[in-house]
Amino acid sequence: GHIWTAMAAAAAAAAAAAAAPPPVMVAPPPLAAAVPTGPALMLGETEQQALDDLRDELAAKDAARLRGVRHVRRTGARVGAAASRELLLPLVTAELLEGEEDVLLALLDELAATPDAAAADDDAEHARKQDDNEDDKPKSFMELLGGAQYLHLLMPLLEGLVCAEDTAVRSKAVEVFAMIVDYMPESDVATQFVEVLNRIAGHPWFTCRASAAMLCAATYHRLPQQIKGSTLANVSRLCQDAHHIVRTAAVVAIGKLAGQVDATTLQADPLKFLQLLSRDQDPEVRQQAAESCIIVCGKLPTPMRGNFILPLAQGFAADPNWRVRMALAERFTSICEMVGSSAASVAPVYLQLLCDTEAQVATAAVFHMCECARLLFCSESSHTDIVAKLIPSVARLSVHPSTHVRAAFAASITGLASLLDPKETEEFLVPVILILLRDACPEVKLNVMNTMNPVNQSLGLERLCQSVLPTLFHLAEDRQWRVRLAVLDYIPFIATHLGTSFFDESMSAFVLSWLCDSVSSVREHSVVVLRQLGEVLGQDWIHQQVIPHVLSLHTHPNYQRRIASLTAITALAPAVNPEVVGNSFLPLVLRMVKDRVPNVRMVVAETLHTLLPYLKAEVITARVRPLLAKVNTEETDSDVKHYLAQTLSACA
Fold first, then answer.
1. pLDDT digits (tens, 9 = 90+) for 392-430
2. Which of 96, 371, 422, 501 is deepest in the core (most CB within 10 A)?
3. Do the Cβ atoms of 252 and 214 come closer than 8 Å?
4. Can you give the pLDDT at residue 127?
5. Which candidate, 208, 215, 205, 263, places its Cα nearest to that of 235?
């Protein structure tokens, strides 16, 4: 009986619910107020069609919608300023405010078109399409709406965009909003913009409050003086926000505001909250605080800088998060410059960063080693602190387990030679350099060789070679061809300063061995180096050391070595007497004209073409042309015949 009673009650309730009117659904309040519209406008057929086409495109999906966004300004130019204010702008706000990320970013690109940018668009469009009407060209939104006095109509749309969920959209929206504010009349900035700014600064969503912090910094210069105090109060309040993203944005805003406020204002709340956020529980906040602290330090009076930055730098250097420590290491040169005579007080912090256990932090610190050493350890009368404090700390970096650290160290260590005297360079730097030159990583060795100039200037090339030359010989046989190529580049520099006496037979053989290298880039570059050496050491060296070796390669079983002899002849021909070309080079080349490898025969034809200007006319007529004509008739390879024909034509 109870069951039947319950079923009857349920049926009665269902019937009553069906008979009752449906409940009224209350929509949530919009994020931004709608743009007010005036009396209905009467549009011409063409203007109405343009507006309808745009509405269809904005209501579409994917590519069609993006195309519609890019047609917004063109449509506004067609319908006129009044229709743009009353019809076009509400349409864009209604259709696009809740769009996808790519649509919103495209819309922001359209809104970012200032009068200057729009003029550039006009020129580009006019060059592309000469028959456009003037009214059909894109204009800036300020021109579309009828002037700067109507820019406040964009604020509801921009307010919605700066409160978007996507970070890229919010960042771009803040940038565009600040650009629009730059063109707005002061009265609109003081009333309507400030109202929007205060509203989003107190918005329940953390994304809106984060945008408000960035917007405060981006538009601070346009705010009336009586409003700036409340704007700074907004930033201070956002520094204490419960959400770490808002605090991160607020600490970035303090860094950007540092250059816009006076020192007295800076030393009040901004400085206090910056110091507070440097100890924030969130590592991202502390990372941004490290960057902003360095910016703010540069805006403080010089006597205050050391006392302000030293405890903060010590805290950042000991931070458990490596990104915070790296943010400090990347900007440590700026700290050294700011504190001036107090630089010695932050030296222990820098040494701590150099020895950091995280490779990224140590690498960032090493990149600035020379400049920091100059600022931290060199007084006007002495640089002994480099030897006493810096060298012992950095010497272990030569065997650091991270190749990135060793590579950065190799690129920086040689610069210390400019801060030391020659004796200290030879005693303390050269042993470290030799360790790096023997490193297993090619990049480490290359970085040392490419930055040896300060050491050379300090020691002189002769003393440097006494220490480094054995290692240089060892690197000439390195398995990495880029290292061999770097050594090869260094040889002409040595020859220029040490002369012929240095290039004895063993050294010449060492250089000539590169003609037989297994990598073509090394072989080709060795030919260039031989030509440079010939200009430095003279023709006697070429005759005695180079030519016999080059001539001996023409019978080498490897065809690449035979080609190397031909390219060497081509390079050396301008550096020797014409008699050498005719008596030594030409017979060898002519003997190779029937080589079994087509690639060699092709290079023979090119080499003969190069040698023609150095040969007498009768030699060409009697020896070169008949042989080439005969070979050309017998040749079966089309590429070789092409080059033979070119050389025969040059002989004529």
1. 888 888 889 999 999 999 999 988 888 888 888 888 888
2. 96
3. yes
4. 45
5. 215
Within 50-208, strands assigned E span none
Residue whose C-alpha is closest to residue 373's, from 350, 407, 399: 350
Categorize the per-residue pLDDT at 32 as very low, low, confident or very high, splitting at 50, 70 and 90.
very low
Q: What is the pLDDT of residues 559-575, one digit of tens each?
A: 988 888 898 888 888 88
> Looking at residue 281, what is its pLDDT?
93
- At 368, the amino acid letter reads H
Handedness of CA 307, 312, 317, 323 (dihedral sign): negative
Residue pair 82/72 in contact (Cβ under 8 Å)? The answer is: no
- List of residues 6+ apart from 498 with CB closer than 8 A: 461, 462, 465
505 or 385, which is more confident?
385
Integer Cα distance of 635 and 278 in angstroms:
80
Query: What SS3 class is residue 361?
Result: helix
Largest CA distance in the chain: 133
Q: What is the pLDDT of residues 46-62, one digit of tens each?
A: 888 888 888 888 888 87
Contact between 186 and 221 (Cβ < 8 Å): no
User: For residues 296 and 266, is the Cβ–Cβ distance under 8 A?
Assistant: yes
Dist CA 438 CA 410 (whole Å): 11
The sign of the CA dihedral 187, 190, 191, 197 is positive
Q: Whose CA is closest to 360, among 330, 398, 338?
A: 330
Residue reference for tokens 């970085």: 447
CB count within 10 Å of CB 474 equals: 12
